[in-house]
What does this fold into?
Amino acid sequence: MSTALKVCVREHVGSKGSARALRREGFVPAIIYGGEEAPQAVSVCAKALDKKMDEPSFRNHVHVLDIDGKHSQKVLVRDIAFHPVKDTPSHVDFFRLSQGAHIVLTVPLVFEDEDQCPGIKRGGILNIVHQALEVSVPAEDIPEKFVISLKDRALGDAIHLEDIDIPSSVKVLRLQPKTTLANIVAPAAEKDESETEENEGTTSE
It folds into this structure.
């Protein structure tokens, strides 16, 4: 887990004027919600938030909020609203995590070892069918990513869900074990040549 993100409790809530004033001072309005506790309005330093957003898998990280320097809270980033013109964060939704709670979220698939993939060395192309997996997982076991090695994958090989290592605490939703996540396909030009040859052979017969 990375460094705690400092936030301050907001006393004046519900006014667009107070939210605009916060942004002018370099802060972003935010809300912490979820669990049995009531939602809590806070603000976060815009520069500190920008730095966090540059971290890999920012939305899948469990973040620790330091609230007024008095107590900490583990959260996930559930949503970020952006200014329509400046494209800067204008509001953040933090989802409060409690011990033992199960979270549904999307975890990215990362394909590695392309330089050791025989199929790609032969001119094949990695065709990615699914970029990520939707999973249900305990809050304390959230994975940042699922890594899939392409080492020893031949031209025409398919990578299925059942081929990758999924921790026992993680339940993949919506997909079946035989679902194809990616495959190594021949280049389009090569496919066209093959189809042309087949058609010519059929015609000559």
Notes: The two ends are 67 Å apart (CA to CA).
